[in-house]
Design a protein that fits this description.
This protein has four helices and eight strands. By secondary structure, it is an alpha+beta fold. The protein has an eight-stranded antiparallel beta sheet with strand order 4-3-2-1-5-6-7-8. The chain is globular and about 40 Å long.
Length: 180
């Protein structure tokens, strides 16, 4: 009987933990959905503003984020020569909230400055994500090296589903996909 109680208790704990994890994912999705609705600018708009401000370079990441006070902004990183430029852009107005420049100190970032890709973020998104999930809203994009390959990592929201994809930046092939 003691053994049965132990098994039932363990099952209850696992069930609670699993339910708790689902609640966290759901709360995160709801928070991101609110940010997407609040943003007047798209990821492409934020990238264009960052590039215009930087003068030149390559956008390697853009992320829609926010804070507890209700501010919604994009964090955009531009690599330009030997310099990493980071911008925080108001997602409602397009104004630059914060700008920071520093020398590139990461070998991977140096490699990314020297890579050429066949597809833009938008091309990769259209070829892969939008074909499978036409209603999805991308809120995070990153150019990255993955197993020696240049890829785009996308995070999107499709209703309440959180989608993470790794896409070949030259062919548009989906290399990895996770749905929560």
């Amino acid at each position: 009987m003691k053994k049965l109680k132990g098994i039932l208790l363990a099952g209850l704990v696992v069930g609670i933990l699993a339910g708790g994890a689902a609640t966290v994912v759901s709360a995160d999705s709801a928070k991101q959905a609110t940010r997407i609705q609040a943003a007047s600018l798209t990821l492409s708009d934020a990238k264009a503003i960052a590039l215009q401000t930087a003068g030149s370079g390559k956008v390697v990441s853009v992320d829609l984020d926010g804070n507890k006070a209700g501010a919604v902004y994009y964090d955009v990183t531009v690599l330009d020569g030997f310099t990493e430029k980071e911008y925080r852009i108001d997602a409602r107005t397009g104004s630059i909230l914060k700008a920071k420049e520093e020398p590139i100190d990461d070998n991977e970032d140096m490699q990314l400055t020297q890579t050429n890709v066949q597809l833009t973020f938008e091309d990769a998104e259209r070829r892969s994500l939008q074909q499978k999930y036409p209603q999805a809203h991308v809120y995070d994009e990153e150019l990255d090296l993955w197993g020696g390959q240049v890829v785009y990592k996308l995070e999107a929201l499709n209703g309440t589903q959180k989608i993470k994809m790794t896409i070949d930046a030259n062919s548009g092939n989906i290399l990895n996909e996770r749905i929560k």
